[in-house]
Design brief:
295 residues, alpha/beta, Helicase, Ruva Protein, domain 3, Rossmann fold, 2 domains, seven-stranded mixed beta sheet, two-stranded antiparallel ribbon, 9 strands, binds S-adenosylmethionine
């Protein structure tokens, strides 16, 4: 059987088993291609050139076993391969962190190589905080996109910090990224010129309805309380004290725009467009936060 036919057949198995996507792929074919190519030790971009290659019985058995593991365990593929890609950058992952998929990464790197956050930054942008860093992916991508910055990557979870350190080392960025433990902004040392934050924001009702794949991820990385805004309340309250005068905070809130607008009615924010639309990532300036907290 050819590689392309095999991947198509394995995609049908994934579909029939009703597995969920959203951890690096959005459909059965892409998920099958990822797992099959990985099982065969092939580069992820090798499919086009190798599509008609005949697979041996051994190769088929090996890749089929990985697909079976995916179906039976309902673990996200990245926990099986210990690798996730974000904006073409590879990251180590395991069950200690969520699989990185933040839309903020798109804003740091666009197709031309200049981030769409540029309009909000200046040549004075030096100190950046990746708050709730998880596996460190946003810190790493920010450091790659802006060679002049230094980044603090913070998280409350020792497990997450251990994985973040692996990724900082993997990309040889230890001189520019400091990994540190902090309960939100309590133990970080600003002022920062830019804060990036993809916090836990899933509301309780949505938490109860999560597919099994998402239940394999650390609950502390997802759950944001009744309306999803528990941690965001603290972040918005404490952020101005850790921001320089012209600083901005870029915050991801997933599908919680209605809850966000209800909780922070008078706060002026700019919604930033990503491939997920205009409702998932927002930007707020230090000035706007200060005005809002005085109101
Ligand atoms: C949605 S994950 C984001 C991870 C990473 N930034 C990404 O985009 O893949 C949220 C992260 O917030 C961390 N977290 C949860 N509660 C926290 C707290 N009180 N203080 C700091 N980090 C916290 C979790 O450990 C988790 O790594």
């Amino acid at each position: 059987m050819t590689l392309i036919d095999f991947i198509t057949a394995q995609a049908a198995r994934l579909k029939q088993a009703g597995v969920s996507f959203g951890h690096g792929t959005t459909n059965a074919f892409d998920e099958s291609a990822w797992l099959v190519l990985w099982a065969l030790g092939m580069e992820l971009d090798a499919l086009e050139a190798q599509a008609r290659r005949e697979l041996s019985a051994d190769e088929q058995a090996k890749a089929q076993a990985l697909i079976s593991q995916r179906i039976e365990s309902r673990q996200p593929a990245a926990y099986l391969t210990h690798e996730a890609w974000l904006q073409n950058v590879p990251f180590y992952v395991d069950e200690r962190v969520i699989v990185p998929r933040s839309f903020i990464a798109e804003l740091l790197v666009d197709a031309e190589g200049s981030g769409t956050l540029d309009a909000w930054l200046s040549d004075q942008t030096r100190r950046v905080l990746d708050l709730c860093t998880g596996n460190g992916s946003l810190a790493v991508i920010a450091a790659m996109a802006y060679p002049e910055i230094v980044v603090d990557a913070s998280d409350i979870s020792d497990d997450a910090l251990a994985v973040a350190r692996i990724n900082v080392e993997k990309h040889r960025l230890a001189k520019r990224i400091s990994v540190l433990k902090s309960d939100l902004l309590a133990d970080v040392h600003g002022p920062y010129d830019l804060i990036l934050c993809n916090p836990p924001y899933v509301n309780s009702q949505s938490m109860d309805a999560l597919p099994p794949e998402f239940r394999h991820e650390p609950r502390i990385a997802l759950a944001g309380g009744d309306d999803g805004m528990d941690l965001i309340r603290t972040i918005l309250r404490d952020a101005p004290r850790q921001m320089s005068n012209d600083a901005v905070l870029v915050l991801e809130i997933g599908h919680e725009r209605a809850h966000f607008e209800h909780a922070f009615r008078r706060l002026e924010v700019a919604w930033l467009e990503t491939s997920a639309g205009e409702d998932e990532v927002l930007l707020v300036t230090r000035d706007a936060l200060a005005r809002w907290s005085r109101a």
